[in-house]
């Protein structure tokens, strides 16, 4: 039976980026069945409701083996639905948000080459959604931290370090101020670390880590950098600047029985329809999804083709110092990946 993928095309530049990704996936001959489903701000503006995801899309998501989500827009306004990503993470319990931060060929930034992985707890923290307006002038939110969530994200981080033969996990926190929530987080991470004698645990205050990341980022090379939901959301965005562009950061949201793949960046509505934004993160997230679904040879071919195109530096988008279109860059990657598979 072929694997099933539920595909949310997204808002803004999302649809054109997803088209670029599909150009590559189709070129390598994925056997997965891909079904489009509605979701996002643009759908909600046309139809309304309490969610950015309609009921029929939830049915498709539940019946799929994995989900691919293009960039979607979330309104920063009270009394509007929670984001598509948060909704899916919480519903399917996708607790591990993974964002590799690795310098691409021919794309070394001003602070040098980096290679680490950001591991973010994706289901609770300040993104739990427990917010209350106490009065016209006062609102509060609850930062929910649980033993279950801390334990499994810590295990995920240490297991990833072990799989990569890396020797350190960095745990980012602010336990000196957030004594109860981050105190619990750090205590549990330390308990988990006792079962991984081959991997060192190094705690870092969030503010110090943010400073060190732009002062001497190489000190974190071959480390797993992990934290709670909001802290790692911000840190991984900062880290994207080290590899030139948020358009290069691909990501996965992993649970025990399901996964969602997505580029780490937003929907960039001002660029909608211009066919100019970087498709790297979208394509590589799609390649990672193929690996997850058992098509590792296709995934490897796409990764290699993308790295080759970046190394050549010719058919790349404006943010990578080129002048190629989104679709043009995707077509070159697709051809290289297809040719590589034909020769293997």
Keywords, please?
344 residues, alpha/beta, Isopropylmalate Dehydrogenase, 11 helices, 12 strands
Structure description:
The structure is a single chain. The chain is built from 11 helices and 12 strands. The protein is an alpha/beta fold. It folds into 2 domains: 196 residues, 3-Layer(aba) Sandwich (Isopropylmalate Dehydrogenase); 136 residues, Isopropylmalate Dehydrogenase (3-Layer(aba) Sandwich), CATH 3.40.718. The strands form 2 sheets. It has a 10-stranded mixed sheet with strand order 2-1-3-12-11-4-5-10-8-9, sandwiched between helices. A hairpin with a 4-residue loop joins strand 11 and strand 12. Helix 9 packs antiparallel against helix 10. It is globular, with a radius of gyration of 20 Å. The two termini are 25 Å apart. The mean pLDDT is 96.
In the sheet with the most strands, the strands line up as 2-1-3-12-11-4-5-10-8-9
Q: By CATH's scheme, which homologous superfamily of the largest domain applies?
A: Isopropylmalate Dehydrogenase
User: How would a crystallographer describe the biggest sheet?
Assistant: 10 strands, mixed
Total DSSP E strands? 12
Second CATH tier, the architecture of the largest domain: 3-Layer(aba) Sandwich
Shape: globular
What level of helicity do the residues show? 40-55%
| Assembly type | single chain
Helix and strand sequence: EHEHHEHEEEEHEHEHEHEEHHH
């Amino acid at each position: 039976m072929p694997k099933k993928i539920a595909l949310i095309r997204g808002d803004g530049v999302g649809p054109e980026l997803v088209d670029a990704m599909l150009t590559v996936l189709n070129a390598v001959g994925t056997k997965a069945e891909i079904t489009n489903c509605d979701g996002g701000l643009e759908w909600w503006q046309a139809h309304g409701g309490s969610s950015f995801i309609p009921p029929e899309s939830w049915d498709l998501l539940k019946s799929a083996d994995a989900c691919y989500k293009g960039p979607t827009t979330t309104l920063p306004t009270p009394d509007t639905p929670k984001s598509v990503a948060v909704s899916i993470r919480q519903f399917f319990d996708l607790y591990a948000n993974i964002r590799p931060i690795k310098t691409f060929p021919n794309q070394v930034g001003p602070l040098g080459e980096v290679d680490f992985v950001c591991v973010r707890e994706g289901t609770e923290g300040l993104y739990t959604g427990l917010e209350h307006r106490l009065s016209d002038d006062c609102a509060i939110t609850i930062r929910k931290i649980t033993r279950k969530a801390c334990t499994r994200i810590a295990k995920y981080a240490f297991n990833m370090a072990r799989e990569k033969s890396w020797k350190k996990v960095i745990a980012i926190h602010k336990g000196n101020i957030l004594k109860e929530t981050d105190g619990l987080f750090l205590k549990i991470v330390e308990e988990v670390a006792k079962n991984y004698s081959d991997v060192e645990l190094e705690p870092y205050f969030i503010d110090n880590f943010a400073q060190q990341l732009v002062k001497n980022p190489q000190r974190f090379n071959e480390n797993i950098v992990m934290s709670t939901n909001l802290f790692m959301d911000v840190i991984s965005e900062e880290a994207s600047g080290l590899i030139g562009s948020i358009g290069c950061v691909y990501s996965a949201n992993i649970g025990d029985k399901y996964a969602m793949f997505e580029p780490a960046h937003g929907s960039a509505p001002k660029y909608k329809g211009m066919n100019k934004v970087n498709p790297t993160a979208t394509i590589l997230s799609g390649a990672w999804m193929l690996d997850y679904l058992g098509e590792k040879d296709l995934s490897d071919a796409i990764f290699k083709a993308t790295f080759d195109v970046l190394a050549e530096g010719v058919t790349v988008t404006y943010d990578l110092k080129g002048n190629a279109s989104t679709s043009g860059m995707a077509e070159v990657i697709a051809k290289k990946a297809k040719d590589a598979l034909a020769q293997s």
